[in-house]
């Protein structure tokens, strides 16, 4: 449905809103005792919504201070369509100020960028959603379907005290929602065509690898470090870690990745067929995004932590390691079988965290609305599906049968290493990209 809005309010305030959001230090350390700032930021978001007339729900997800905010904007009274969830998380990963060019929580706007921790992950999209929610309510906009705005806690630590807690304990809050859009999708990838022209592809996330953190443990008899020992927990774990860390899992072509490679191959002329003789190397010719795409061709298992011993001359009774595992859709059983063959006889494994993979198809009205919104503001653009090598809160919402996509539109400079900005030093987002994204997102929501 059409709106009677002026159409510029969200664009006028979105940069300030993103900057203000960054100035809230919502660092998520992964430990509830030291995570901070989520409650203060969530209540500020609720205040911005209530200021223009929303009735909000502030919900703490299982622990004090783990704040989440819900707000609903009604669609047509006679609509039989399900609601659309627009979700974004307020927490960010830690940042060390000494490493940065600007303070990571300054929200500085300079040199054409908004700087700070969370600028791309994901206070840019939170800012766009909040600015549009305010504009819609202020102007009496009636969208084509009910819109549910949700701002969550704890995504950066897997969502145990955020989206997953809400889904498991308060499913009533998601009543009527059938589809959702969130982070890490909709951004542009500029590729070179054989005719010398360039084409902007906008990557829509239709799939995510599973996220599983695995603990390896070995036990042995304690003893003096000067004796001969054929039973050593440190050795057993170290050997298992080395085997896993050096292992290459088989290439598996999922639907989302196959469609992405076909689209990029068509535009660039590169041989990106699944059976191409040197696919891994060829992929890097499309730019830095290849680090993400390459990680979606196969499962990965990267050792990240080691723990053993308490004194240099004592053989410890136990040694442990943690491995970050990312598993393709449909591969969990085969992945675990391969891991078990690599462990060795004296090492056991357990899941510390286990979140399923997710994949949906690149079709339907919502996908058409995304493409139309991009074309309305970039007539030569093209949307293509892709798989995220990491994970988002979509994993939680999918448990309720909600169809999830990543669509936070940004038109990026061709030479910007966007992938490196996620959790990176000097995280920043172009001002022009946020303004562009707000316009595209408005068009999308008004035709969703």
Automatic annotation (TrEMBL):
Transmembrane segments: none annotated. Residues 206-342 form the Peptidase M20 dimerisation domain. Keywords: Hydrolase, Metal-binding, Zinc. The keyword Hydrolase applies. PROSITE patterns: ARGE_DAPE_CPG2_1 (PS00758). Its cofactor is Zn(2+). Gene3D superfamilies: 1.10.150.900, 3.30.70.360, Zn peptidases. It comes from the Bacteria. Belongs to the peptidase M20A family. NCBIfam families: PRK07906.1 (NF005913). This is M20/M25/M40 family metallo-hydrolase. It comes from Gordonia prachuapensis.
């Amino acid at each position: 449905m059409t709106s009677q809005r002026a159409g510029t309010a969200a664009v006028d305030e979105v940069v300030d809103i993103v900057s203000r959001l960054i100035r809230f230090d919502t660092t998520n350390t992964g430990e509830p005792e030291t995570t901070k700032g989520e409650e203060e930021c969530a209540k500020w978001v609720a205040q911005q919504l209530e200021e223009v007339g929303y009735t909000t729900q502030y919900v703490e997800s299982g622990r004090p201070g783990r704040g989440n905010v819900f707000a609903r904007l009604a669609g047509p009274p006679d609509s039989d369509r399900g609601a659309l969830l627009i979700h974004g998380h307020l927490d960010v990963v830690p940042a060390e100020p000494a490493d940065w060019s600007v303070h990571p929580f300054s929200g500085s706007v300079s040199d054409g960028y908004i700087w700070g921790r969370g600028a791309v992950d994901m206070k840019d999209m939170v800012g766009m959603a909040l600015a549009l929610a305010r504009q819609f309510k202020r102007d009496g906009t009636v969208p084509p379907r009910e819109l549910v705005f949700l701002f969550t806690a704890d995504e950066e630590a897997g969502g145990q005290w955020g989206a997953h807690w809400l889904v498991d304990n308060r499913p009533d809050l998601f009543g009527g929602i059938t589809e959702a859009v969130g982070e890490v999708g909709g951004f542009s990838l500029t590729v070179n065509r054989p005719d010398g022209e360039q084409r902007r592809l906008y990557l829509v996330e239709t799939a995510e690898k599973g996220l599983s953190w695995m603990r390896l443990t070995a036990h042995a008899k304690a003893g003096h470090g000067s004796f001969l020992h054929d039973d050593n927990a440190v050795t057993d774990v170290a050997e298992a870690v080395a085997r896993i860390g050096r292992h290459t899992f088989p290439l598996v072509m999922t639907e989302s990745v196959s469609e992405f490679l076909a689209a990029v191959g068509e535009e660039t002329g590169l041989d990106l067929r699944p059976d191409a003789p040197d696919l891994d190397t060829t992929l890097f010719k499309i730019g830095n995004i290849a680090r993400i795409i390459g990680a979606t061709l196969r499962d990965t298992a990267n050792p990240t932590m080691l723990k053993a011993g308490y004194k240099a001359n004592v053989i410890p009774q136990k040694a442990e390691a943690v491995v970050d595992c990312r598993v393709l859709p449909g591969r969990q059983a085969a992945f675990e079988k391969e891991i078990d063959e690599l462990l060795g006889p004296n090492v056991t494994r357990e899941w510390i965290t286990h979140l399923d993979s997710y994949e949906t198809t690149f079709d339907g009205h919502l996908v058409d609305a995304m493409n139309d919104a991009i074309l309305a503001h970039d007539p030569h653009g093209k949307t293509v599906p892709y798989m995220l090598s990491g994970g988002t809160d979509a994993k939680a919402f999918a448990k309720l049968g909600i169809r999830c996509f990543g669509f936070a539109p940004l038109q990026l400079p061709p030479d910007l290493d966007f992938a490196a900005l996620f959790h990176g030093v000097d995280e920043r987002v172009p001002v022009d990209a946020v303004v562009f994204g707000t316009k595209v997102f408005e068009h999308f929501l008004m035709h969703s």
